[in-house]
Write a structure and sequence with these properties.
- With about 140 residues, the chain is an all-alpha fold.
- The protein has six helices and no strands.
- The chain starts with a helix and ends in a 10-residue tail after the last helix.
Length: about 140
C-alpha cells in the first residue's frame, strides 16, 4: 500500500481517492488561469523552461536564489541573499524586488496587487514542477 493510500485509509477516505489527483475546482482553475495571465508580464525576461534575460523558473520552489542551472546573470546581491524560494519568499520578493534584495539586477517594480501575486505564485507552483510540468535546461 502506498503512503498516500495508507493516509487515505487512515483518514477514512476511500482508497480510490488516493489513486489519482482530483480535478481542479472551478475557483482553483480560475486562479491558475489568472496567475498565467499575470506571468505574461514576466515573459519579457523569464520562461518556465530555459534561461532568457532572467533565469528559468522550472524547479523554482525549494531552489536557493541565484542558482538556476546555466544562468550566470545574477547580481551578487541575489547570490548572497540566502533566499530559498517558497510561497512566502516569492510573495515578499514579487511585491517589491528592489526592497527585498537591494542591488538585484531585476529591474521590475513588482506585482503590487495581492490577489494577482497570490494567483501568480499558485500558477508558478503548478507550472514549475520539474519532471511533472517542466524540464530544467
Amino acid at each position: 500500500m502506498t503512503r498516500l493510500a495508507l493516509l487515505a485509509w487512515a483518514c477514512g477516505l476511500p482508497l480510490a481517492a488516493a489513486a489519482a489527483p482530483a480535478a481542479l475546482s472551478v475557483p482553483e482553475a480560475a486562479r491558475l488561469a489568472r496567475g498565467e495571465q499575470v506571468y505574461a508580464r514576466c515573459a519579457a525576461c523569464h520562461a518556465i523552461e530555459g534561461n532568457r534575460t532572467g533565469p528559468q523558473h522550472c524547479g523554482l520552489f525549494g531552489r536557493r536564489a541565484g542558482t538556476a542551472p546555466g544562468f550566470d546573470g545574477y547580481s551578487g546581491a541575489m547570490r548572497a541573499s540566502g533566499i530559498v524560494w517558497d510561497a512566502r519568499t516569492l510573495d515578499l520578493f514579487l511585491k517589491d524586488p528592489p526592497a527585498t534584495v537591494p542591488g538585484t539586477a531585476m529591474g521590475y517594480a513588482g506585482v503590487k496587487d495581492d490577489g494577482d501575486r497570490a494567483a501568480l505564485i499558485a500558477w508558478l507552483r503548478h507550472a514549475t514542477r520539474p519532471g511533472a510540468a517542466c524540464t530544467p535546461r
